Amino acid sequence: MTEGKKRLVVVVPCYNEEEVLPETGKRLNDVVERLVEAGKIHDGSSICFVDDGSRDRTWRTIEDLSLRLPRVGGLRLSRNRGHQNALMAGLFQTDADWTITIDADLQDDVEAIPRMVDAALEGVDIVYGVRRERAVDTRLKRVSARGYYRTLAALGVEIVYDHADFRLMSRRAVDALKLFGERNLFLRALVPQLGFETRIVQYDRADRSAGVTKYPLRKMLSFAFEGITSFSTKPLRMVTLLGLLLSLCSAVMALYAIFVRFEGITVPGWASTVLPIYIVSGVQLFSLGVIGEYVGKIYIETKGRPRFLIADQIEARQTDPSASVSTETSERPQTIAALVSDRP
């Protein structure tokens, strides 16, 4: 009997992950099957892989998995929209009672999912998967990650330390998330804004099961800067304070120049002329860059373009027909345009 039990959907964003998907699908399917057999979740629970415009055989692999594993379904975005938008696509296109998001590389421990479900059964709306330690990361990555979390905290950004995008969310938490209309997404800081009851489940992070990371240093730095500028205006205030400090220094230098001029102790020099110009010019360009980043975000937000468009959808065959998401746009509770464009 599954009457009264909650339906779970595991959302897995994918970008060029054909090598790891067979193992990911198998392990996630095993976990969901065990939870169903234990009577903790509805028999219509499933796994939804979201292909974020991959250039390899990721979508074909998802199709093959859906034929072999009845709990596997998928979404294919019309083009690459980025990891955070792929997560949102999976969250918004399911009507499950509980939704778990997890990356495809199996670095997040799928065996933590039963503990997340146990917490949800106690009435918790959001369960964060938090890394117990970073033993598999390089020393540089560990140090930079710790520094980044401390920087976010210092800038007033509310974030769960050592939490990525491995989390469980209840239906009402996902519905609340839909009310946030920004296009510049940083879910690690956005989800804590919901304010519902939360709990932390710790796990040990593993090495990538197969393939290579899709987050090289360039993307990691871009993602980090996105998180700072999307949730804090303190960099703008810091630029203002820096400008004030330079103005005070300039005033002091002006008084000093007047003093030495009347005292007749001036010594002509190239360094004293050129170095201040370089310093002030560098600060000005840096300040304009920070301001430009915020102006660019305003520009993107005001256009109101869709976060994502779905090209194909595969329904998990195991899904309970009475609880499934219709593949016909006209029968969906909200159209794609409504999901991605409506303002609260």
Query: Number of helix segments?
Result: 11
Question: How many domains make up the coordinates?
Answer: 2
Molecular shape: elongated
Stretches with pLDDT under 50, minimum 5 residues: 320-344
CATH fourth-tier homologous superfamily of the largest domain: Spore Coat Polysaccharide Biosynthesis Protein SpsA, Chain A
Strand content: 5-15%
Helix percentage: 40-55%
Biggest pleated sheet: 8 strands, mixed
The total count of strands amounts to: 8
The level 1 CATH classification of the largest domain is Alpha Beta
The end-to-end distance, rounded to whole angstroms, is 39 Å
Q: Which strand order spans the largest sheet, edge to edge or round the barrel?
A: 7-5-6-4-1-2-3-8
Order of helices and strands: EHEHEHEHEHEHHEHHHEH
Radius of gyration: 25 Å
The CATH topology of the largest domain: Spore Coat Polysaccharide Biosynthesis Protein SpsA, Chain A
* Helix-strand makeup class: alpha/beta
Average residue-wise pLDDT: 77
Return the CATH architecture of the largest domain: Alpha-Beta Complex
Main attributes of the structure:
344 residues; alpha/beta; Spore Coat Polysaccharide Biosynthesis Protein SpsA, Chain A; 8-stranded mixed β-sheet
Description of the molecule:
This protein is an alpha/beta fold and 344 residues long. The chain has 2 domains: 8-214 and 305-341, Spore Coat Polysaccharide Biosynthesis Protein SpsA, Chain A; 234-303. It is 46% helix and 14% strand. It is built from 11 helices and 8 strands. It has helices at residues 21-37, 58-68, 83-92, 113-121, 139-154, 171-177, 187-190, 217-231, 234-263, 271-303, 336-341, and strands at 8-14, 46-51, 72-77, 98-101, 126-131, 163-170, 198-203, 310-314. The chain has an 8-stranded mixed sheet with strand order 7-5-6-4-1-2-3-8, with helices on both faces. α9 packs antiparallel against α10 (271-303). It is elongated, with a radius of gyration of 25 Å. Residues 320-344 have low confidence and may be disordered.
